[in-house]
Amino acid sequence: MTPINTWGRNMGRGFAVIDLETTGLFPQKHDRIVEGAIVHVSPTGIVEGVWETLVNPMRDMGAQRIHGISAAAAARAPEFSALAPSIASLLRGRVPVAHNASFDARFLAHSMEQAGLVCPDYAYWMCTMQLAGTFLPGNRSLADCSAAIGYAIEDAHRASADALATAALLRAYIGAGHDPAWWDGWLATPGEWPDEPYDTTAWLARTDSDTAARSVLERLHVDVAADAAVDDGALNLDYLALLDRVLLDRYMSATETDDLIRFAAELNLSSSAVRRLHRAYFDGLVSAAWADDQLTAAEWADVQKIGGLLEIDAETIAGAASKPDAAAPTLTTGFRLSPGDTVVITGETRRDRAAWFAILTERGLFPKDSMVKKAKVLVAADPDSMSGKARQARAWGIPIVTEEGLERLLGLGAGE
Asked: Cβ neighbours of residue 30 under 8 Å, at least 6 residues apart?
């Protein structure tokens, strides 16, 4: 969202409405901010400026079903320490306001402290949830309070949307005819925010995060200087081996896409060479599916899924519904989970963690919460996770698969 104001110091007397989206509830237990928004509101309740940004938490994303932010998007955002001085600048001279202010105040104070800065005490914060008892009896949640004043929240649990809803609530309170001296008393004592010079670290709004990463082929150069020397028709088995690992769970994360692009560049492969490798992998998959002279519904769905991920043209994918005239070599490694293998799980999975442990144990596998070098796979709710376990798995070359990918490896249906 483009700010109405420009950056600067001493931006005027008034309120600064704050909303934070976080990985969880407890900053002291390593939960972190993943998105923040600040709305400047004048003493009379007029919105003067809006700022928002994603924040890289350098850990897993927590309850993504609530905030809806992918790890791939957050990975492109700045860390809080780089944002802290500019946040302080936006809050300086203004009364901090939030709905359930104790939550936002705790997180902001902890994050500021981690960045070497100090926030004003919680006593300087105004809480629109607490004030609802005075202005909107019987209402407490932001959704209920907003409905009571006729304000419709769009994109709830997006920081800017919730901050704007809180600003609308604040304006309704200001306009309710309460003693002006009471409001003036708040405005006269906004608390002291750090006066630190801030750098030019760009804020990254959720809408600007480009969460849908461009494809492998789109991001590769069409021509490579040494292409004539290396693109001679031979199959690059190293690239195919990495591709096979990426496709274990039939999902290509942003991190995996980056890995394929980086590796193709290291191998000096042009986009035409990569396109040919993708086609060879696809043809091998189709031949394997037709090996028993029939194509089941599950196999056909798999062929279509892989074809889409490999950017195979629609006509070729459709043609795979018929048995090929000649068999193509199978280029998969036949990766399997076998009894005795260790499976590590990270993040908030759809299926209860205890249920996963029971399923894995029943199959003779060893489920773990902590990362070990002998792990066969790491299962992540978000395969672009920035958790310590995910970072360690990448360093050790351990495949990271989705929960659906684990179900596929175990031959489970989603409901089993």
From this structure: 59
Q: Which of 190, 36, 194 is nearest to 103 (CA)?
A: 36
Structure tokens at 337: 């989970």
Helix (H, G, I), strand (E, B) or coil at 405: helix
> Angle formed by the axes of helices 159-174 and 128-135, to 10°?
40
Q: Could you tell me the pLDDT band of residue 196, with boundaries at 50, 70 and 90?
A: confident
The three-point CA angle 189-194-197 to 5° equals 135
Q: Are 273 and 230 in contact (CB under 8 A)?
A: yes
Q: Are 49 and 3 in contact (CB under 8 A)?
A: yes
Q: Is 405 left (phi over 0), alpha (psi -120 to 50) or beta?
A: alpha
Q: Name residue 14's beta-bridge partners.
A: 94
Amino acid letter, 303: V
Query: What is the model's pLDDT at position 10?
Result: 39
CA-wise closest residue to 183 among 135, 121, 120: 135
What pLDDT sits at residue 334?
80
CA distance 264 to 64: 32
Instruction: Give the contacts of 415 (CB within 8 A, at least 6 positions apart).
Output: none
Contact call for residues 379 and 228 (beta carbons, < 8 A):
no
Distance CA 166, CA 148 (A): 13
60 residue type, one letter? D
Distance in angstroms between the alpha carbons of the first and the last residue of the chain: 43
Judged by DSSP in three states, 37 sits in: strand
Measured N-to-C along each axis, helices 254-266 and 237-246 cross at an angle, to the nearest 10 degrees, of: 180
pTM over 0.90: no
Backbone angles phi, psi at 96, to 5 degrees: -75, 135
Distance (Å, whole) CA 415 – CA 407: 10
User: What does 284-337 look like in DSSP terms, one character per residue?
Assistant: HHHHHHTTTS---HHHHHHHHHHHHHTT--HHHHHHTTS--SS-----------
d(C-alpha 219, C-alpha 254), whole Å: 12
Cα angle 395, 404, 237; round to 5: 50
| Token pair recorded at residue 183 | 């409001």
Give yes or no for residue 230 having a pLDDT over 50. Answer: no
C-beta of residue 109 within 8 angstroms of C-beta of residue 119? yes
| Strand pairing category for 47-54 and 33-41 | antiparallel
